[in-house]
């Protein structure tokens, strides 16, 4: 039994009209009278009436401007001592003018685009990892065409060189120089500038009072921003669609109850399509894992869960589905499943769902320790119950990046991923709504681009293994229908879907991985 969803989704083609109704706060230029503004997002008081969930067989054709890249000239990297001299002296004598542009390694890629008569540069839109070397920076091919605005391009290039030099200074332990470089980068960055300028701003915004105020102002519009962000961009929809279809396709015919264990159910936005697909012939259990560590925001965790539970149960009732929503710790889950098996309830089938670092989650992202604990328990229970697991990962850390042992090379790869994320937001967003875009970036992109997030990723990288490689489970092959749905979602855009090892689907932006979804059994 299927029911028409009780909410509609924004029409992507008419996004310019829809977003004009969001009424984003207009003041991001002063820090006066901001002490009473909560720095934490609100939760939805009801299921968002205008947020559509991802259903199979729907047609997707996200609007993305087709911007061509030009240029193929190389420019060289900047040595640390040159950067230091550059910052001490005038910029007219920058190291860029003093180095040969031939045969350079350790550089970024720049492209010129045309959008609304503005020139934009792009980092690494065609970057590839070397098959023989894990050094990201040594294989990124740079290119550049200078626009007419010499001042603007000089700022772009100086930021790129400063970012490169910062990574090298940190790698070599030259913290004094790194601090000097950091200050120069902050002077040149802007939350309303080009992609490179915004990348630099969000990377270091935690150290900026203006950045903190911008985040507080953006939280005033959290609900509207979340609705629009989930609608416009495919990051969350891609992860939810592929995971949901994998779960539904793997359900055995003879089970009576489907039991889905979610790492963090959040606002529950992933599960209405599954509720509809289950129908009235089977019952559904949704278990969200609770953690001892504090909640992500000022809303108490239990209050947030109860609100999500109410919305999901109301929706299940409208679909004629028997649904039980609960929250328990990992220890309680293991004990509960053991008791269930002992009582002989063998017709309950387990599906584990783990989503981490997906952009729409913003700062509500579980720690790697929590994720690893969840995956370890999932592996043990799947092996004993023949269940399945879906893993969505938005960190952008490919397996080859995890072999890196030098911070500078890792930092290059981190910048490429962060730039691709920001660029995908910019080029898929109406240009006359830049203020709304800034609010969304502050809420949902900044947590993954910040320097703190970079250092956390670096520490995880040094552990030497990805979440996928440590599972110890068999890959569950994606069906052709599932992949067809994913390809259809991004058809006509500059996103693309790639498949690895038959059980890993990757959402790329111009060749740069943004989201990975894998399925296991």
Automatic annotation (TrEMBL):
Region annotated Leucine repeat II (LRII), chain positions: 307-339
Record field: compositional bias (Polar residues): 122-135
Region (SAW): 453-521
Keyword Transcription regulation (UniProt): yes
Keyword hit for Ribosomal protein: no
Keyword set, alphabetical order: Transcription, Transcription regulation
Renumbered residue ranges of the record's region Disordered: 111-135
Family to which this protein belongs: Belongs to the GRAS family.
Protein name, entry field: Nodulation signaling pathway 2-like protein
Organism annotation: Kingdonia uniflora
